[in-house]
Amino acid sequence: MADQPCSPDAPLKIGTRGSPLALAQAHETAARLGAAFDLPQDTFEIVVIKTTGDRVIDRPLKEIGGKGLFTKEIEEALLAGQIDIAVHSMKDMPTEQPMGLLLDTFLPREDVRDAFISDRYRRLSEMPQGLRVGTSSLRRRAQLLAARPDLDVVEFRGNVQTRLAKLRDGVAAGTFLAMAGLNRLGLADIPATALEPEDMLPAIAQGAIGIERRAEDARAEEMLAAIHDRDTGIRLTAERALLAGLDGSCETPIAGLATLDGETLHLRGEVLRTDGSKRITDAASGPIEDAAHIGHAMALRLLSEAGPGFFDETL
Ligand SMILES: NCc1[nH]cc(CCC(=O)O)c1CC(=O)O
Hints:
Double Stranded RNA Binding Domain, D-Maltodextrin-Binding Protein, domain 2, 13 strands, 5-stranded mixed sheet
């Protein structure tokens, strides 16, 4: 029998990382697919895959380096047919996928904002000089130092739970997390203050879940089409074109956010030196059909304003 979207004979295998946030995202995907096709949840099997980024936890991310640190093993399992679809945080995804894989399904986007987390201070501006703030994100480090060069930024790796534990242990007085992760984990009760994009422009694709599939898998294509969110797709097209044009990886501080107003797309972008000593921003608008062009054109403007050497290590 040919593959059919609702075929009950084989469960749809959903590949994911094993962190609580990744599992929540995989379960959300299964729930949306189940609702769209009126299928019971045992139609879906969640398969946990350990990635290099999960395995190497004792070194800063930028040292391990390379794109796809959290995705390579998952994409290999997808290509090998060990899983049927893969659920990803789009923020962690390289702009290009391996031959044979498509990443073009997006769930409705969560809160895009970053949150400042601290037991003692509600706002960054309340923090006394010299205090320690933990983050493993080069973007957040650079943005924080641009606003507060007096603060001491320390490396802070691990999943959401690990980082909250480090805060309780006094390793730092504050940290940042994505609101999307907190919301998806149901952690609304932790001491978080959401930062507006004007104050901290989020990472490209922050808050968006993407689902990857094999290009020739008709069952996956038909199932995923039913849960795709068009607006999120348009916004990510612009943001990821900006990222691709900047040749961005986890090693460069880049921020970007697209919003839609009817058929018009607004895009903001920002690049920073890693020590926060320089920040270049840009904004553009245009029809949603031009999403990719708007992002790419912004990348070229930012690059030419930055000039050679802008991203060279300054720490
Ligand atoms: N780099 C890790 C990562 N990837 C996605 C999220 C949060 C959820 C999201 O932005 O979709 C996080 C953790 C964080 O930044 O707090």
